[in-house]
Amino acid sequence: MPIEGEYEPSPAQWVRDQVAQYENSGGARANTLLDTGLPIIIVTTRGNRSGKVRKTPVMRVEHDGEYALVASKGGAPDNPVWYNNLLAHPDDVMLQDGNEPFDVVVRRVSGDERARWWDRAVQAYPPYAEYQVKTSREIPVFVASRK
Predict the structure, then answer these.
(1) pLDDT per residue over 60-92, tens digit each?
(2) Closest CA to 23 of 106, 125, 85, 101
(3) Quick one: what percent of the chain has pLDDT higher than 90?
(4) How far apart, in Å, are the Cα atoms of 84 and each of 71, 75, 122, 130?
(5) Which residue, 34, 41, 39, is CA-closest to 56?
(6) Does residue 106 lie in a domain region?
(7) Would 88 be classed as within a structural domain?
(8) What CA–CA distance (Å, rounded) separates 110 from 113?
(9) CA separation for the pair 130, 113 (Å, rounded)
(10) What is the residue-averaged pLDDT of the chain?
(11) CB of 55 closer than 8 Å to CB of 18
(12) Residues 68, 139: contact at Cβ < 8 Å?
């Protein structure tokens, strides 16, 4: 079911454009990270403070029908805004991987499970390893599972 409420597009123009193109084409266009050729998915969350609907392209890291959502922010010292949205509303999340969005529940992983998902994430998007070296925080990893 779609997440109800007012949609507030990202302040970043490239994110707004990518989300719109991806959704309007059923995932046929704007389905890679800029010019890398590496696939992305669209994550829809509810803002942790505003309650507004937010949409973010993230790298596609899929394994056995589940998805890793890596809160890397390019190795910045702080987490991306959507990290707080997932913590506040883990049951109010949708993913779009291709044509149809679907409901998921997310959970932050740690220990051995995080290590397995981290390895999968680095395989899918090698710069994650560089991002971890750039920051003193352990980059959070969430796993999204279909409801």
Answers:
(1) 999 999 999 999 999 999 999 999 999 999 999
(2) 101
(3) 97
(4) 10, 17, 22, 23
(5) 41
(6) yes
(7) yes
(8) 6
(9) 20
(10) 96
(11) no
(12) no
Question: Which CATH number goes with the domain that contains 57?
Answer: 2.30.110.10
Q: Is it the case that residue 1 has pLDDT exceeding 80? A: no
Q: Which tokens go with 139? A: 């980059």
Residue 8 lies in a domain: no
- pTM confidence score: 0.95
Terminal Cα distance for the chain, rounded? 11
Closest CA to 75 of 31, 15, 137, 32: 137
Q: Which residues pair with 106 in a beta bridge?
A: 144
49: in domain: yes
Would the CA dihedral through 69, 70, 73, 77 be positive or negative?
positive
Q: How many domains does the chain have?
A: 1
Q: Give the range of the structural domain holding residue 92, as residue numbers without chain letter.
A: 13-146
Distance CA 98, CA 42 (A): 9
